[in-house]
# Entry
Amino acid sequence: MTAKDTAQLENELTEADDVKKFLDANADNLRNFTLAEYLQRLLTEKNLSKAQVIKNSQLDEGYAKHIFGGRKNPSREKILSLALAMNLSPNETDYLLYYAGHKKLYARDDWDAVIIFALENHKTVFQTNELLEELKLAPLVSC
# Structure
């Protein structure tokens, strides 16, 4: 069975006559992950090293390891630092935020717009902080 993206699932759900049949037919595609499980999935899918992601995120190493181990509930800013360090797309970042229990990025918010821009343009955490500072917005992380 191949994985379906959200748009495919939404289309099937819109056309479904019976929600139970939809849920049964798509049980494998509806699996929710813990934050730690989703982070591990991203590391595997993108062939990334946890150590390099932690270094690139500019987060405290011990704290970041707790995030990956499922022992910390990080702030939205820390999740976004990990997203930048993993070179995620804005869409992938929204999923990461979802699994961390935070709101998705919103282009009408100036701070979020900078983050979306940084993700789209493959900026580092350091470069993103510089851009935020230049625009007199709060930093992503203290460097």
Observations:
- Residues 34-134 form a domain with the 434 Repressor (Amino-terminal Domain) fold (CATH 1.10.260).
- The first helix runs from residue 6 to 15.
- The chain has two domains: 1-31, 34-134.
- The mean pLDDT is 92.
